[in-house]
Amino acid sequence: MAKAESSSSKSPAYTFLIVCPDLTTFPWEVVPVFRDSPYVARVASVHALFRTLNKNDQIPFEVNVNNAFYVLDPDNNLGDTRKRITDFVSKFGWKGVVGKVPSTEEMAEALKERDVFL
């Protein structure tokens, strides 16, 4: 999920959801954490998101890529792949959860406070 938001003015915050096919039937747009975010939309892929943002200069694109949260291997079954990805994401200093499902509190904080959710 990427969030584009203008911090200096009171422009609306835009939240774009890129949802895996297994979770598309869940109504993510109406989750309580998005109650104060009227501009929530699904996008098919990261590529489609960038195409949309590049074509629309009305959307303020201020995303701090250092302010990210990630969930890695919530089923705790990736083995060597998990280690390789952990080594990679650790370079960025992002906050994340590895090898477990994030708690409700962790998810709420990530969706409210982070600019990028992976």
Written overview of the protein:
With 118 residues, the protein is of the alpha/beta class. Helices cover 26% and strands 19% of the residues. Strand 4, helix 2 and strand 5 form a beta-alpha-beta unit. Pfam families: Separin_C (PF03568). It catalyses: All bonds known to be hydrolyzed by this endopeptidase have arginine in P1 and an acidic residue in P4. P6 is often occupied by an acidic residue or by a hydroxy-amino-acid residue, the phosphorylation of which enhances cleavage. One of its GO terms (molecular function) is cysteine-type endopeptidase activity.
Summarize the structure.
One of its GO terms (biological process) is proteolysis. The protein has 118 residues and is of the alpha/beta class.
What spatial form do the alpha-carbon principal axes imply? globular
Q: Care to count the β-strands?
A: 6
Arithmetic mean of pLDDT: 81
Main β-sheet description: 3 strands, mixed
The stretches of 5 or more residues where confidence is low (pLDDT under 50) are none
Spatial order of strands in the largest sheet:
1-2-3
SSE string, helix = H, strand = E?
Answer: EEEHEHEHE
* Helix/strand structural class: alpha/beta
Considering the chains and any ligands shown, give keywords for the structure.
hydrolase, 3-stranded mixed β-sheet, alpha/beta, 6 strands, single chain, 118 residues, 3 helices, globular, 2 domains, 19% strand, Peptidase_C50, EC 3.4.22.49, cysteine-type endopeptidase activity
